[in-house]
Amino acid sequence: xxxxxxxxxxxxxxxxxxxxxxxxxxxxxxxxxxxxxxxxxxxxxxxxxxxxxxxxxxxxxxxxxxxxxxxxxxxxxxxxxxxxxxxxxxxxxxxxxxxxxxxxxxxxxxxxxxxxxxxxxxxxxxxxxxxxxxxxxxxxxxxxxxxxxxxxxxxxxxxxxxxxxxxxxxxxxxxxxxxxxxx
Length: 183
What we know:
Layout: E1 6-15, H1 22-27, E2 33-36, E3 45-49, E4 56-58, E5 63-69, H2 72-90, E6 99-108, H3 115-122, E7 127-128, E8 137-139, E9 147-150, E10 155-161, H4 164-180
Antiparallel strand pairs: 1-5, 1-6, 2-3, 3-4, 4-5, 6-10, 7-8, 8-9, 9-10
């Protein structure tokens, strides 16, 4: 947990640096992971930890993504076990790097939010609010790498960046803009 926000999802990825035979990887017995490979519905092999940790999607190109970790530490731990399993069980010589791409963080503004009024306060050209489609307001400032989903309950989701301080300042900026407009 940071100031006002807590991490609900760490999203990362990278490459193992070589093309892979997914059929033989999917048939391999791994120490830490169960694999799932259904090429007709999804092009990658899904690695699910036997204990806990986020799933990893591995593609033929050697690229992988990892999403669903509750912390950078948990994500790295799972990634390290994945690398060890791939090297030890398949004999592949890999030199992977884990890039943390962005965080999904959640918080609460501590008050109910009038979403139609928030649309105007945050700027109609940078917000999207269609309550019959989705109960939240999407706010994507053009000049920022982060975006926000705001709910009438005051719950807020801030994501799109690997920089937690930036996400925290986005939260404060949205809170301040709404407060300044009496929302």
